[in-house]
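Example record

One chain of 442 residues, shown exactly as stored in the release files.
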Amino acid sequence: MSFVSGRTGVWLMGARGSVATTAITGALAIRAGLAAPDGCVTELFDLPWLPPIGSLVFGGHDISDLPLPKKAEALGAAGVLPARLAAALASDLADVDASILPLPSSVDDIARDIAAFRDRFSLDRVVVINVASTEPVPSQDLSLVAVDDLPSSSRAAHAAFTAGCAFVDFTPSTGARLPALDALAREHGVPYGGNDGKTGETLVKSVLAPMFAMRHLRVRSWSGLNLLGGGDGAALADPAANAAKTASKQRVLADTLGYEPQGTTRIDYVETLGDFKAAWDLISFTGFLGTSMRMEFTWHGCDSALAAPLILDLARLLAAAHAAGRAGPLPELAFFFKDPIGTAPSALADQWTLLLSFLEDLSHTLSGTTPASPAPPLTRSGSGADPGAHASAAARSAASPVASAEGRGDARSSAASVAGATPADAPGGDSAETRDRDGGAA
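Predicted structure tokens for this chain:
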């Protein structure tokens, strides 16, 4: 059974964008047994104390009025998600769409909408996740700004904390990175995480940079060119927003190498790429006796398909952390972000170790054990399972909130069964509503 008792809601700021729509469609598909939870880090392990993916209830704010089923249909036509899923889940998506509201300008109104969502579906906790467009770096001292004049991401964080909800900023925007907001989160006893989801080029950098450091190879220059379309790319055509994003992407090099090599990261908007992105990096380095060498890599990926499963991971982990009594920043979630909040390592392997320790701690707390006692083990799910087995396992498990992994030959199938949950009994409770960094909330 799940140790995170009650029902968990996910409130997305930018709920009709590409990332949000993909996350919602994926959660609905997993619940219905139509898809596997591939890409969800939390599904690598048997974590019965997490809220099942299929039990999450979605809602959100957005400035777009494009209905969620239409957005999913467009993403299906663009190859971002299977068109068959958009068609099969159209009714469920419409149910979710009913809980996506226009974005108010007042922090109090945002908080009231979140609280009303929690009450409407009898939710025990709500996780607010910002997946709206990237904001420019503030040009003024925000400590002197009225609450309703804060950047949109910070208003969302303030509203979440006031409503007693955990918060995640999946963008490089200001979000909760203000001392007053940190104090507010601690005052209300809620955790928060961020910033800027790590899904592409920076993910590769966080693996390669430590390799050069560990082999004592001197990186002389590291330059990258990123090309992307969609709403995120259009938002980053703004030089101020672009600067915020590139600064976030470069930080990993100085942190892991111990120095900053020559070179820059550039982001260009290419409309024809749609929701896909490409990156080319050129690295020059020297080795023994000063011999010059170079390395190049190319990355081509679908931004929403890479980000959406992490949204589901973070919603589940923040809900668990809230249930475990954690408050304030969660640097243990650095694995998911380009620019982690708090003090955390930048190398992916070190971040992975930190995440595993975090999962162990949550397991002890939520299962009622102590570190000195035998905690429920972090059982690693197997790999290489037939994708069809995932879906069938999820479908079989729809009769119970969480299916036990014990006694199953295919651990990945058991992970899928953890994701399958009884459809929510509240109207629209099964649907998810999200919006992505691709054009929605400001």
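Notes: Residues 8-197+305-419 form a domain with the Rossmann fold fold (CATH 3.40.50.720).
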